[in-house]
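Ticket #568: bound-state structure for arginine.
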Amino acid sequence: MQQLKKQAAKAICAAVSSLFAPLSLSVDEVFELLEYPPETKMGDLALPCFKLSRTLRRSPVQIAEQLAGAITSDAFSEVSALNGYLNFKMNTAAFTSRIVNTVLEEGEGYGSSREGEGKTVVLDYSSPNVAKPFHIGHLGTTVIGHSLRLLHEFVGYKCVGINHLGDWGTQFGKLIVAYRKWGSRDEVEEKEIDELVRLYVKFHEEAEKDPALNDEARAEFTKLEAHDEENLALWRWFVNISLREYQKTYRMLNIAFDSYNGESFYTDLMPPQIKKMKEMGLLTIDDGASVVNLEEWNMPPCLILKRDGSTLYPTRDIAAAVYRKETYDFDKCIYVTSAGQCLHFAQWFKVVELMGYDFYDKLLHVPYGTVSINGEKLATRTGNVILLKDLFAQAIEKVKGIMAQKHSSADEKTAEEVGVGAIIFYYLSNNRMRDINFMLEDALSFDGNTGPYAQYTYARCSSLLEKAADEIPSCSMTAVTEEEAALARVLAVFPEKIASALAESEPSVITRYILDLCAAFNRFYHDCQILSAEDKTVRGNRLALTKAVKTVLGTALHLICMPTPSKI
Ligand code: ARG
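RESOLUTION: The complex was predicted; output attached.
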């Protein structure tokens, strides 16, 4: 669509110069003024001429009428004036051919602006807390984060994906105490993370009755921080068990990280930052703790050191940001977490600014809303959690059932791709800030606006092209049906959707686009003969259109972490 806009802008500028010289307009300024009419019946583009009446010293109605008579361009079949608007109807056959050929030429690169070329973005996402369950609350950070990574990669950024594991903190003291009191090596070795979670939950149950356990846990963590050999060995063991478990989920989602440097990694990098804060006079003592006062910015103080001198979550984030800037020299550093952490990020971003680091404005927090399942909230401590792996397993089982009913062969791999894909798609269908109540039945439906439906449409394109088995010619249409033109319009806006998904850090823009594309393709598929078209040229053109849809749909699905089975 951008190209069509540019053609219109050029034609308008040429007409202005010939009609109203010495007055003139620049292509860029006209480009910015052009609008998409709410309905394509009115036209494909419109120029609101009242915005020009000052510069051109005429009434909007006059401008529109004179321009309508003077514009010549092959790209448009009709240029007309109405109430001070100049309306453009595109030459749909030429437009459709041009879009299809552009997609076929550019292939998987179609839609990319390459705006990130030569730039680096660091993305901090997923980042579960070790030895706590990897539950459905982590779905958001994992899939939004990964989708943002894929979007950045698509436009040429060098991406560094970091899993900022929560691998340090008092929870390890708790786990060590619980393991020694109620656990055994054999049990942990056999049941791995499930046993760690059991111990963690058990600790909280027991600590309710006997609060002294909390002191014991703190003492064990202090020993760990002091590099106590025995505690370090246990810690390492717990971390490795958890990592192995996470990897299984990441493999299902086809996610890999460039770095698993978790919070523990920054232990030695914090003291220099704390020293700097002290020297700059940023730290004040508040009830024994060291904090940075942020009253002036209407925020509570940012905690840097506890009374006992131990460091905190923000302290580690500050050290990590400095380390990342030095290591990767990022142009952008993105953090994806639940909206519950908005204040945390606002606070320490401000501290980084106060410390005089000029990269503070390259830090970006991308928050998202809460998830519940069938209305139930989740809480790790009480054990009321739905593990991500269990949710996936459930979805995969259901997919097998549905596919068996449909008499389609559900091999293990396809069932996994459809089941996991359904959950990702459902999750990414909403604006990220919206709170989601997960309904598995809805997510897995093959008929609604779901992942299986989108994958099914993709598989339909694949099988059509496979059946055709001919060389796909380039597209050269002289006439188009309404369905073909509508489909071309959807293909044409893909580059703009990529740009807004990136600008808003909003993968759901792509998910909704996929649904538009699927709807337009399925209408075309039902109303236009493709393989059975009698005219050879028509058949070729429609196959070319199908191939363009398959390409763009494949790219779009990939960008929201969706697998694309070629058969369902
Ligand atoms: N581990 C944290 C959690 O589960 C998320 C970490 C996000 N990243 C960061 N750099 N703070 O809540």
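RESOLUTION NOTES: The mean pLDDT is 93.
TICKET STATUS: resolved
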